Amino acid sequence: MAGQIRLILLEPDAAIRAALVEQFAVAGEFHAIAAADVDGLPDEESSLSHIDVLLTDEARPETLSAAAARGFRGPVIAFRAGEGVQIRLERPCRFSTLAATIRSALHDHTRSEDARFQLGPYEFSPAERVLAVPGEEPIRLTDKEAAILRYLYRAGTRPVSREELLGEVWGYQSGITTHTLETHIYRLRQKIEPDPSEARLLITVEGGYRLGQTNA
What we know:
By secondary structure, this protein is an alpha/beta fold. It has two domains: 5-110, Response regulator (Rossmann fold); 117-211, Arc Repressor Mutant, subunit A, CATH 1.10.10.
């Protein structure tokens, strides 16, 4: 199972907001943080760089600007038309339709040229296969290195087994072993860790790996 999809739900109607939060919780694959508007989000959500999707009643320009100012770079789904909306859903809609729309929007976004994720001090562009820090030379990644980081990012704090990572990145190709993965992990650490022997971003756990702090 992949990591939970992290989303912000902005809905001024308290009853609708509570009902959606409950449905997201029951579904299990979503972690929803809800408020009437951006200013109503919890203090611990001062940075939105780790949020995957913004779901809002109406995508007002000031709402999108406030979310962007906090680091949000993901797709926007709205129930009412607004400037900057990539996807609009008509109400009423089934929760299954909403969930499928969120999955599809995130799938498309993570493969777009615009996708950016915060990994520790780095801004990660999977499409360009680059890790960047302002004022420093960008770190170039191979296809497989970028795929490894992207999958671990999507897993959130959940440890990913070596077998799962092999299957997702290499597709269980004949002849590919965990040694191949370990070699790629070693090379990645040489590129991204200040001290590869004391990894803080790409962490080994029992049976596999996970990412450390993903938003600086």
